[in-house]
Specification:
Blueprint: E1 6-13, E2 19-24, E3 33-40, E4 47-54, E5 66-73, E6 80-85, E7 92-98, E8 104-110, E9 122-125, E10 131-135, E11 140-146, E12 151-158, E13 170-176, E14 181-187, E15 194-195
Antiparallel strand pairs: 1-2, 2-3, 3-4, 5-6, 6-7, 7-8, 9-10, 10-11, 11-12, 13-14, 14-15
Length: about 200
């Protein structure tokens, strides 16, 4: 079961069609961060499993807030789930990967030069196998990471105005590696509340 006051906060679909759902928690020591997988929506053979329950970053202190952003790639035993720290001061992400019984384990990626809170509102896998996009109210940022060392660095920051800029009101983002395109939702005025 999913826990907390927001038990179904983020949903994404893996390449193999498995649906992953996560809660939001600001206190994972008492309200665990939970990811549930659904392999089939067939009412006769409903395939639901608990992928993760726990505290992804117990050593992170106040940055240990999870569930505002989640993005999935791959499938089966090659599935990777990227979750950003939802703290306003967070400079970390967790990458969850399964073992042979589909129990997922997080690897914390620390990105010291990432602006605080950069992964709170928008997160997407980036080009290649070792990058991700991060977007909060500030600039769009491309991060490169090393899964084996648990570290990352800011590879590129895109300005909020001018050429090749991304407005600060763009938050929800998604990258299409086949077309090399990044799209985002822009929060706007009441007349036109959201634009792509």
């Amino acid at each position: 079961p999913l826990n907390g006051s927001t038990p179904m906060n983020k949903i994404d679909i893996a390449d193999d069609g498995t649906i992953y759902i996560a809660n939001y928690t600001s206190t994972p020591a008492t309200v665990p961060f939970t990811i549930v997988g659904i392999g089939s929506d067939d009412p006769v053979s409903f395939d639901k499993f608990t992928a993760y329950v726990g505290n992804p970053g117990p050593s992170l202190g106040t940055d240990n807030v999870w569930g505002r952003t989640l993005v999935v790639r791959g499938g089966a035993l090659d599935t990777q789930i990227l979750v950003g720290s939802a703290s306003s001061s967070g400079k970390t992400v967790a990458i969850f990967q399964p073992d042979v019984s589909y129990a997922f384990t997080p690897t914390i990626i620390s990105v010291p030069d990432l602006p605080a809170g950069a992964c709170r509102l928008g997160l997407s896998w980036g080009p290649g196998t070792n990058t991700f996009w991060a977007k909060s109210v500030g600039s769009l940022i491309l991060v490169e990471f090393d899964l084996s060392t648990g570290t990352g660095f800011v590879r590129n920051t895109y300005p909020q105005t001018g050429a090749r800029s991304v407005a600060d009101s763009v938050t929800g983002i998604s990258f299409d590696p086949a077309r090399n395109l990044l799209a985002g939702l822009r929060n706007g005025l009441a007349i036109r509340p959201v634009s792509v």
